[in-house]
């Protein structure tokens, strides 16, 4: 999958995390960790791992002006946390939303940069 598609998929996951968070709060439910949380977190970890390889190579080769490795580190850590937190109604709403908005901003910056400097295919 291309870097652009993976980045768009991660952006979509941010919005889905907000909806999931709202659902569990409104329904006053607790998730089934082994059937809901763990498989989803594992799936996202795999996606993030694939995305990380592509984005780091892309940064090295394309040298986008407004995207830096430290942003990638921060985004990866943040997404891994809020994916799991989205299932729990006890999560701090303010911090949760702030984390997602920060991640969305970075992902949107990357999408804009991909359109500006080209995608992950280093030979372009």
Alpha carbon gap, first and last residue: 17 Å
What's the number of extended β-strand segments? 0
Quaternary organisation of the protein chains:
single chain
Parts with pLDDT < 50 across at least 5 consecutive residues: none
Helical element count? 4
Give the SSE order as H and E letters: HHHH
Q: What integer is the average pLDDT?
A: 93
Query: How does the major sheet shape up?
Result: none
Task: Explain what this protein looks like in three dimensions.
With 124 residues, the protein is mainly alpha-helical. Helix content is 77%, strand content 0%. The protein contains 4 helices and no strands. The model has no long low-confidence stretch (mean pLDDT 93).
What is this entry, summarized?
The chain has 124 residues and is mainly α.
Protein traits:
single chain, 124 residues, mainly alpha, 4 helices
List the helices and strands and how they pair.
Layout: H1 3-26, H2 33-62, H3 69-85, H4 93-117
Helix pairs in contact: 1-2, 1-3, 1-4, 2-3, 3-4
